[in-house]
Amino acid sequence: MTDASNTTHTLMQRFHDAFEAHRPDDLDELIGEGCVLENTTPAPDGARYEGREACLTFWKGVAFNADLAFELEDIWASDDRGIIRWQLRWGKRDADRVRGVNIMRVRDGKIVEGMGYVKG
Question: What is the annotated signal peptide range for this record (predicted)?
Answer without folding.
Answer: none
